[in-house]
Amino acid sequence: MVDFHPLEVTQVKSLTPDSVAITFGVPKELVQTFNFTAGQYITIKKEIRGKELRRPYSISSSPKKDTLTIGVKQVDKGGFSAYANQKIKAGDVLEVLPPQGRFIFKPGAEPKNIMAFAAGSGITPIMSIARSVLESNPRNTMVLLFGNKSYKDTMFYTDLVKLQLEYPDRFFLYFTLTETREEDSLFGRIDTANVNYVLNNKHKDTDFDDYYICGPEPMINLVTEILTEKEIEEHKIHFELFTTTEISDEMPEKVDGKTKLSVVLDDEEFELEMDKNTKVLDAVLKENIDAPYSCQGGVCSTCIAKVTEGSAEMVKNQILTDGEIADGYILTCQAHPTSQVLKIDYDDV
């Protein structure tokens, strides 16, 4: 299993009144360990008020840099995002898990046209993707529609404008704002009208190779639906949630009984008994088994394991493809057993 490593914070930069960019230095002996593909995230582990927190944050920096930068928007009062915005400073050391994630852009020899949609802090992985698209091939182009309340609330605003100035013929940037009207921006949310304006009006003659969407679930669903109606092939549409919707109403009916659970992790096998209504990851962690996890909300892909015997049902899945599910992969933070015996393998991922 991949381990956490101590990384020193080299810079903390304010992006908006409630968000910061945190940059980590990567020592030479860990450069290979922390190599990443644009769009991936890191997981940070920090104990706050006696409780260990693990939080995934997307990388915004270019894969060509020897540092890692993440964007953190404050969304809580006493959790990690509040700590990051109010207390983290240069010189602090945090425990960091190496990059992971499937929401990625891989450069190639052939030129590509990329379209991206982001809202709020969903811009963070898109920043890294944009940098990689523009740096990796002089014939690549990228179009970005980015939604926020105002310019003041726009994360990485200055970085985006600099990219636009650096690549004026290849990077096409459209801001859409919901609370202020600006001469050089659209007005409103990322809705059908604004999506169609960019797709059908401004870039109607462009054949896009891939579409990247990151933001709240309703926005992702809307853009995906519009692209699907335009007969865009499913494999060209990539999305990543930065929040998850409430799932209490999606929980299956309670099932009586216990399951014998076998867990393979780091070439060791652990056996335990668990309630069928308990999520697999919760049962594993309760036994002090150091299984990989991060968000615990079905948003990231850190806790994936393969079912090698028995069956399990996921409450929510926004990560795994139908093919991966058919092959037996589950998000253990969202899965509960549906068989008397369940065997999972964290190593076979």
UniProtKB/TrEMBL annotation:
Recorded superkingdom: Bacteria
Organism: Zeaxanthinibacter enoshimensis
InterPro entries: 2Fe-2S_ferredoxin-like_sf, 2Fe-2S_ferredoxin-type, 2Fe2S_fd_BS, Beta-grasp_dom_sf, Cbr1-like_FAD-bd_dom, FAD-bd_FR_type, Flavoprot_Pyr_Nucl_cyt_Rdtase, FNR_nucleotide-bd
Stored CDD domains: fer2, PA_degradation_oxidoreductase_like
Domain 2Fe-2S ferredoxin-type: 259-349
Pfam families cross-referenced by the UniProt entry: FAD_binding_6, Fer2, NAD_binding_1
Cofactor: FAD
Name assigned to this protein: Ring-1,2-phenylacetyl-CoA epoxidase subunit PaaE
